[in-house]
Amino acid sequence: MALTSRSVEELDEVARECERAGSPATYVAPCDLSDGAAVERLAQDLVSTFGGVEVLVNNAGILVNGNPLEGDPDEWEHMMDVIVNAPMRLTRRLAPKMAERMSGFVINIGSIAGTEAMSGAAAAYAAAKAGLRGWSRSAYLTLRHKNVKCVLINPGFVNTDMVTSRPALVGQLIPERMIQPSDIADAVSFVLNSSPGCVPEEMNLRLGLSAFK
Predict the structure, then answer these.
(1) Torsional sign, CA 209, 120, 131, 4
(2) How many CB atoms lie within 10 A of CB 54?
(3) pTM, whole model, 2 decimals?
(4) 212: pLDDT confidence band, cut at 50, 70 and 90?
């Protein structure tokens, strides 16, 4: 298992959690996914070290002020690099080995925001996730002929700091009513355990009870 993030400390913490859960070995590869050259080096490192990967989970995310009238275009570009361009680069570099083996998974973590129009500060985030959605669905059409499953998982509000720390949402959400990170992990597990003839191309994880107070 290979893990990547900007924070070495967080990577080491997750690696220890994985090992406690039974992962035989965890490879830590720090990388700033907004840096295209760094992403290319990461992909090459994974190919050189492992000969490729069997499962690629594109899960990195960032949320900035995306108000069309007030947002910072440089921040939007940074967000697009993380949410859209990094998965595109990693898929381009790692999926060919899967195609050669006629086996593999590319799992993209999108958002319900990418399936709907959003106003105000969420507009650019919705645009970025919509871009990932378009890429994922197009990659599915290409990779399915090589027995590589490309799947998009779209969660709604997830109980993570990225959501709960937003100024507009602080104190307004009920954490136990939000989608939990474990729910997304369960969705990934479902994909990995699906039968060879089944491709859950897109999965929407919506809130049950309202998460708002």
Answers:
(1) negative
(2) 13
(3) 0.93
(4) confident
